């Protein structure tokens, strides 16, 4: 255990120290990658005791591993939760959480602007098991209330939402959830706990694609769930163990290493994004910019209320139709044309044909993902170079 009192430590300190003290076995300062599928028992009795729960210990990496646990310990600290559970991807985390609350015949309420993979899980895959998502516009709280019935098992909110940065009022939704005695699950991937703390706003469970800002370097796919210890124990025992969507020790180690710089990375992502959003806002070839930090963002006031910063994601509509967007994405050089987000490298993509191609044309129109919408994940490069890059690429577009 750590010598410092981590309960009192500030966020940036937790990022560096939250995974734990030096390795007890060797004194290694960096948590070792315990790259082992199985763990030897000291005796038959020892093994039997671990299986029956009488003694603590490691058995098999699908059930627990010290490197995975270091990552989980740190994420629980950073989100201010009792416990956390790592998964092999954000989708493994999200699907396990939904399945942990729902049975055939049940439903849940979610916002309608979601990462395309989450939307596909909700409207294509889960209905095969007779579990139904009621996707609604959660900026109007009445829509949430009227979608709840006696078969509703949870409320699921992604905020700010991918890709339009639509924001849902978590405190208000938390109260609705409490009133109906159902949990509120929040996807905190875009803001990370550095800018938004859902558990303090009334959420019961937080999920992440840890692939993004948590790892930060574009070298790992992973997910994490944070919540009450009793819930996380159940999720580990019944859904991670049985469905098997575990994280590898190497990936858990990469995430612990990535988290050490989360606070300074998020500051830099945001500083760069604010500059770029302001630059784009007044560019003659740009129709509209979606960034929670701009006063023109429809939920700017809610962002100010529930977030301590606006993050590094921007979406904008370009003038000149789809061709102009294609020209921009083919001309830009420092921004890489790629999906994913939250990396130190800046990325650019076209949601309608890429990350959100799981939405039908009607659904895309309903949630405001047009053919001319471009999404930026602003990295940590020098902002002058990023703006120069955008400026040169925008100059190549004829409108
Ligand atoms: N939640 C959000 C908000 C996401 O953006 C993603 C992935 C996921 C969950 C799923 O996480 P994964 O399984 O990929 O770790 N978002 C992606 C995106 O916008 N481009 O590529 C993946």
Question: Care to describe what's here?
Answer:
- The longest helix is centred in the last third of the chain and has 20 residues, at 262-281.
- Helix 3 (66-79) packs parallel to helix 11, helix 4 (90-101) packs across helix 10 (229-243) and helix 14 (321-331) packs across helix 16.
- The protein contains 16 helices and 12 strands.
- The protein is globular, with a radius of gyration of 22 Å.
- By secondary structure, it is an alpha/beta fold.
- It binds ligand LCS.
- Ligand LCS binds at residues 89-91, 115, 117-118, 158, 162, 187, 189, 209, 211, 221, 223, 339-341, 355.
In terms of structural class, how would the helical and strand content be classed?
alpha/beta
Q: Ligands in the structure?
A: ligand LCS
**Which CATH C-level class of the largest domain is it?**
Alpha Beta
Element-level helix/strand string: HHHEHEHEHEHEHHEEHHHEHEHEEHEH
Query: Mean pLDDT across all residues, rounded?
Result: 96
CATH topology of the largest domain: Aspartate Aminotransferase, domain 2
Number of domains: 2
The proportion of residues forming helix, as a percent range, comes to: 40-55%
Number of helices: 16
* CATH architecture type of the largest domain: 3-Layer(aba) Sandwich
């Amino acid at each position: 255990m750590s010598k410092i009192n981590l309960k009192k430590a500030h966020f940036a300190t937790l990022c560096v120290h939250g995974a734990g003290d030096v390795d007890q076995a060797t004194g290694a300062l960096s948590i070792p990658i315990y790259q082992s599928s199985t763990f030897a028992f000291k005796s038959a009795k020892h093994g039997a005791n671990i299986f029956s729960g009488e003694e603590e210990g490691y058995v098999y990496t699908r059930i627990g591993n010290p490197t995975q646990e270091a990552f989980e310990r740190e994420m629980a600290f950073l989100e201010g939760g009792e416990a956390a559970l790592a998964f092999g991807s954000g989708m493994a985390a999200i699907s396990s959480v939904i399945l942990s609350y729902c049975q055939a015949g049940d439903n849940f309420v979610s916002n309608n602007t979601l990462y395309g993979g989450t939307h596909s899980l909700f409207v294509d895959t889960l209905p095969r098991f007779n579990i139904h998502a009621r996707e609604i516009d959660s900026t109007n709280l009445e829509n949430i209330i009227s979608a709840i019935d006696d078969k509703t098992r949870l409320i699921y909110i992604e905020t700010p939402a991918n890709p339009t940065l639509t924001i849902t009022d978590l405190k208000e939704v938390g109260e609705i959830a409490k009133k109906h005695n159902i949990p509120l699950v929040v996807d905190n991937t875009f803001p990370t706990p550095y800018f938004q703390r859902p558990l303090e706003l009334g959420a019961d469970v937080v999920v992440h694609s840890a692939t993004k800002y948590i790892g930060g370097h574009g070298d790992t796919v992973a997910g994490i769930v944070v919540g009450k210890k009793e819930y996380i124990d159940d999720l580990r025992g019944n859904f991670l163990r049985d469905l098997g969507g575990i994280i590898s020790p190497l990936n858990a180690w990469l995430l612990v290493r990535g988290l050490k710089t989360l606070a300074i990375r998020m500051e830099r992502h945001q500083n760069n994004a604010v500059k770029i959003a302001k630059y784009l806002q007044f560019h003659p070839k740009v129709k509209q910019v979606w960034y929670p930090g701009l006063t023109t963002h429809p939920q700017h006031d809610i962002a100010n209320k529930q977030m301590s910063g606006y993050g590094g994601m921007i979406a904008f509509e370009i003038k000149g139709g789809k061709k102009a967007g294609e020209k921009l994405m083919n001309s830009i050089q420092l921004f890489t044309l790629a999906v994913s987000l939250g990396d130190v490298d800046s990325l650019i993509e076209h949601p309608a044909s890429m990350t959100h191609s799981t939405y039908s044309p009607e659904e895309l129109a309903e949630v405001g993902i047009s053919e001319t919408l471009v999404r930026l994940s602003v990295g940590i490069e020098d902002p002058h170079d990023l703006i120069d890059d955008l400026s040169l690429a925008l100059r190549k577009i004829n409108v």
